[in-house]
């Protein structure tokens, strides 16, 4: 164990994001901080038993697993949007919003990621990035898309170089987090609070 703690020898800490939250996988409760957020509360014993059976023939002989509940880190955004004259602002805004939701879909994100507004901008504007049931056709009506602020709602972002997460992954202008990459921890998974995200019309 890197920490030198003998109790951690051969122990593998596992955090899982299920395809569907619920009593058959990971039970949740409503977040006390994020209005449209949840908090994982307990693994279903049957589910972890099934996962352990899958892991057993694939792990080292003396290793054993300890199940850790994932921590959802909720992001929100302040976005300025200007649309082309032939497009309706509301329809373009809806597609921008839906594509932001798709970016944060559990199928597209990972633990221990770095959240960077430049990556999100490229994802939103890329016509090849589509969902199985949505092509986001009205994204072509975007004239300007400006990320004015990025915030983490349910955790404190630590200073660059800190040993805890989430943290700024690089130093930039003090107090201007829109320019900073935010790195999350090994048991932390990025999520979106669409209720706290603002998309305003630019003229």
UniProtKB/TrEMBL annotation:
Record-given protein name: Uncharacterized protein
Organism: marine sediment metagenome
Organism lineage string: unclassified sequences, metagenomes, ecological metagenomes
């Amino acid at each position: 164990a890197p920490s030198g703690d003998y109790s951690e020898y051969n122990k593998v800490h596992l955090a899982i994001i299920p395809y569907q939250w619920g009593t058959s996988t990971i039970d949740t409760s409503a977040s006390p901080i994020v209005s449209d957020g949840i908090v994982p509360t307990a693994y279903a014993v049957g589910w972890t038993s099934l996962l352990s059976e899958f892991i057993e023939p694939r792990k080292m002989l003396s290793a054993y697993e300890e199940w850790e509940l994932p921590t959802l880190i909720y992001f929100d955004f302040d976005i300025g949007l200007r649309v082309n004259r032939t497009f309706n602002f509301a329809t373009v805004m809806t597609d921008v919003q839906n594509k932001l939701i798709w970016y944060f879909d559990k199928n597209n994100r990972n633990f221990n990621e770095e959240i960077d507004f430049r990556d999100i901008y490229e994802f939103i504007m890329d016509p090849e990035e589509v969902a199985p049931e949505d092509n986001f056709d009205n994204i072509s009506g975007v004239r300007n898309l400006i990320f004015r602020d990025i915030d983490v709602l349910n955790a404190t972002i630590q200073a660059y170089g800190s040993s805890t997460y989430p943290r700024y992954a690089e130093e930039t202008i003090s107090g201007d987090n829109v320019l900073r990459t935010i790195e999350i921890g090994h048991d932390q998974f990025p999520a979106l609070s669409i209720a706290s995200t603002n998309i305003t019309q630019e003229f």
